[in-house]
Amino acid sequence: MPKNMKKGAPPGSVVPQIDRTRCEGKAACVAVCPNSVFVVERMRDSDYASLPLLARLKSLAHGRRTAYAVRADACNACGACVRACPERAITLELKRSVPVA
After folding, report:
1. Using one digit for the tens of pLDDT, what is the confidence trace for 9-24?
2. pTM reported for the whole predicted model
């Protein structure tokens, strides 16, 4: 978790980022998230195609399963997913504000 981020941030102010080169789809994040932010499913073809060769091989060995933050807007930065992930594939980042034109 970034040093300037407070635990328990307002929902929607933090976005969980999943490193697909690390995630093995073990679903620890799904099990510990109090806000049901994550699902584990087959890696999308576009995500798989963007991986380097060794990461693609690793993904195949794990059945191409990976976590997705389908309800990222519900994340309140508790950090449970970051602590639970055995591959250290999850980071929490402050959501960037989009300027209004």
Report:
1. 777 789 999 999 999 9
2. 0.83
